[in-house]
Amino acid sequence: MRFIREHACQGIQVSDVLSQTKHSPSTLERRIKALFGRSLKTEITRVRLESAKLLLQETNLKISQVASRTGFNESKYFCEVFRTVEGITPTMYRKQFLG
Questions:
Q1: Domain containing 11 — which CATH number?
Q2: Which of 45, 77, 85, 87 registers the highest number of CB atoms within 10 A of its CB?
Q3: In angstroms, how far is CA 9 from the centroid of its own chain?
Q4: In angstroms, rounded to a whole number, what is the distance separating the alpha carbons of residues 17 and 95?
Q5: pLDDT (mean) for 43-60
């Protein structure tokens, strides 16, 4: 989990996490699911979105820049994932913090 927290925004994938352990993919996935209630992919996405939310709150970066800095290859995909998980678009999320 530390590897995910430290590297999620660098665009890592599940295979990168698996390469950091001696466990088989199925064993690691099963253990992570039992401990945290989510898959490795879901955890990577969760960490990326938390970082994106901070950037949206604290910076004026374009959405494409936020996507890039948080490990999403395409801003369109970032927006889709953000909306699915958060229920609103990144732009709408940011507007909540404008003062």
A1: 1.10.10.60
A2: 45
A3: 7
A4: 34
A5: 96
CB 25 within 8 A of CB 18: yes
**Residue 92 pLDDT > 70, yes or no?**
yes
What is the spatial distance between Cα 96 and Cα 56, in angstroms, rounded to a whole number? 10
Give the torsion sign (CA, 32, 36, 38, 42).
negative
Q: What radius of gyration, in Å, describes the C-alpha atoms of the chain?
A: 15
CA separation (Å) from 53 to 4, 25, 83, 89? 17, 30, 12, 11
How many structural domains compose the chain? 1
Which domain covers residue 25, as residue numbers? 2-95
CB 53 within 8 A of CB 63: no
